[in-house]
Design a protein that fits this description.
Shape: globular
Mean pLDDT: 89
Low-confidence stretches: 1-22
Radius of gyration: 20 Å
Order of helices and strands: EEEHEEEEEEEHEEEEEEEHEHE
CATH class: Mainly Beta
Structural class: mainly beta
CATH topology: Jelly Rolls
CATH architecture: Sandwich
Largest sheet: 9 strands, antiparallel
Number of domains: 1
Length: 330
């Protein structure tokens, strides 16, 4: 496990069985954060040792009350609240209401898998499953209906931003959740243009009230194959093969109407360029149109602030962040 430049965090390592085929396999689970400590009280110092939060970045105006536990003890879980959303930007950063990424990075096996998981419960206010939002009149673009988790969501992320800009996300609303794959564009990731970047919602699922376990697994093998997989309470609900290639490029007939179609992209395989992941949690909206940034003037669509902030918000509980690595023999 590689450490970032922030203070190292001890994690519990638990062996979880050995494969019976005679191969040199290993299966290990790291309990990264369950918001408790063996002695004393888990507080903001422990939280910030494990998570680098967006509200600690100079000039980044995160939701002012998102971290509800800022002045109180953590009750064995993380509670975040932004009701209603208040921040808005005419760029990709409009999506981010609160964001905190792990200060630890985790090695990706050359042959095997790495799975990130967290328990999440979200309650939204001010959302409407039939809500339409409309671009600025000058855009001459149609209004569109947006999913509940696009309006307000608790989020779980697996990130390779530092090497490729690739990430995999769960957006969790109150009654629905969706799986998202994305390769961030410049200016967020240097050198990634419309020919390589994409943001695509793969699958939307109905969820019942209460806590569920959301997981994202990445697997690769020496043959050159790789894929990402999204799991809900242990069941696989979505999959992306050939990570780095947009889904509508890989499967034009199946994903012609995907949200959002790539723009002249061919993509590129990222399997051999990714060595580590870290993970993150947050509060997000996702309402505008890819490519989300005015530097792409030929494709950028402007949405007025009152179409992006309309009184919606989310209260979220997170717990039991775990990382499981399965390393297989050659």
């Amino acid at each position: 496990m590689n450490q970032s430049s922030h203070e190292a965090v001890p994690v519990e390592t638990v062996p979880d069985g050995v494969n019976g085929r005679g191969e040199a396999n290993a299966h290990m689970t790291n309990v990264y954060d369950d918001f408790t400590k063996q002695a004393g009280t888990y507080g903001l110092t422990e939280y910030h040792n494990r998570w680098f939060a967006s509200d600690r970045i100079p000039g980044f105006a995160a939701e002012p009350e998102a971290l509800r536990t800022r002045t109180q003890e953590f009750p064995g879980e993380l509670q975040l609240e932004a009701v209603p959303f208040q921040t808005s930007r005419d760029s990709t950063l409009d999506h981010v209401k609160y964001f905190a990424q792990s200060t630890n990075y985790f090695d990706i096996p050359d042959h095997g898998s790495i799975t990130f998981a967290a328990d999440i419960d979200a309650t939204t206010v001010g959302t409407d499953p039939d809500r339409q939002i409309c671009p600025a009149p000058a855009e001459d673009e149609p209004c569109k209906t947006v999913l509940e988790p696009q309006q307000a969501a608790a989020t779980f992320h697996v990130l390779n931003i530092h090497e490729t800009g690739q990430l995999f996300d769960w957006f969790v609303g109150e009654g629905k959740a969706f799986c998202l794959t994305e390769r961030l564009l410049a200016p967020l990731v240097h050198g990634v243009g419309l020919d390589e970047g994409y943001t695509q919602i793969i699958e939307t699922v109905d969820i019942s009230p209460g806590m569920h376990t959301y997981a994202i697994r990445y697997r690769r093998n020496p043959s050159g194959a790789d894929h990402a997989e999204w799991l809900l309470d242990g069941d696989s609900v979505a999959r992306q093969e050939k990570v780095g290639i947009p889904l509508d490029v890989q499967h034009p007939g199946r994903f012609d109407d995907i949200t959002w179609p790539s723009i002249g992209a061919t993509g590129e395989r990222l399997r051999d360029r990714m060595s580590t992941f870290n993970m993150a949690h947050g509060l997000f909206s996702l309402l505008d149109e890819f490519p989300f940034h005015p530097q792409y003037g030929d494709h950028f669509v402007s949405f007025p602030e009152d179409e992006r902030l309309f009184g919606q918000g989310v209260t979220a509980t997170f717990d039991n962040f775990e990382v499981t690595t399965e390393t297989l023999g050659e």
